[in-house]
Amino acid sequence: MKKVAVITGGRTGIGRATIERFQGQGFQVINLSRKPAGIDGCTSLIADFSHPDWLSAVEKPLKEQLKGCEQLAIVHNAGVHVNDHVLEIEPEEMRRSLEVNVVAPAILNRFLAPYLVPGSAIVYIGSTLSEKAVFGCTSYVTAKHAVVGMMRSTCQDLAGRQVHTACVCPGFTDTDMLREHVGGSAEVLKDIASVCTYNRLIEPAEIADTIYFCATNPVINGAVLHANLGQVEH
């Protein structure tokens, strides 16, 4: 059986760990990201989701790689974190956030629709901020809330096709994105880790395991899963 996983944003962090997880289970993996993943056996196609015409550059090689696909897993992992205040939003930055986090997954779903045979799955990657908000992240919060809405719509619109979906919402995961967000401060990372009941950051491989579980278990359909080690409430 030819099993294919199309994973976006697989160069680092959760995306990279997810590629390795699916490869370990016999999936042929196609990565869509701005730079190659650099993983043996993984086909990397260059796509910048902030540009509306990104699909034109990868359409032909994607079709070639998907020939004979008997089971497809789509993992919408690519994302962009925009920090802004609701009264000071830069329209172009909000558009960029929505293009990458929301519009690109919709475009990819439409393109891959013919390959979504029974047993396939679409897994969206949300965030702790998919169902709440914090100060200074309006565009990101808005986009990640929209991701949950798209996942729930996916569940309803694909009813009867035996294609399931879920949204995995990682907590504080030790990724390049998080480290860049805090300016590489070890002290801030330590403070962030203390918010988790386990007093540590999540490893990307732990989120990859959760994503794989969702992609291969159809009983998980229309569900939002918060993978965050438990967060201490104040």
From TrEMBL:
<dbReference type="Pfam" id="PF00106">
    <property type="entry name" value="adh_short"/>
</dbReference>
<dbReference type="GO" id="GO:0016491">
    <property type="term" value="F:oxidoreductase activity"/>
</dbReference>
<keyword id="KW-0560">Oxidoreductase</keyword>
<dbReference type="InterPro" id="IPR020904">
    <property type="entry name" value="Sc_DH/Rdtase_CS"/>
</dbReference>
<dbReference type="InterPro" id="IPR002347">
    <property type="entry name" value="SDR_fam"/>
</dbReference>
<dbReference type="InterPro" id="IPR051122">
    <property type="entry name" value="SDR_DHRS6-like"/>
</dbReference>
<protein>
    <submittedName>
        <fullName>SDR family oxidoreductase</fullName>
    </submittedName>
</protein>
<dbReference type="InterPro" id="IPR036291">
    <property type="entry name" value="NAD(P)-bd_dom_sf"/>
</dbReference>
<comment type="similarity">
    <text>Belongs to the short-chain dehydrogenases/reductases (SDR) family.</text>
</comment>
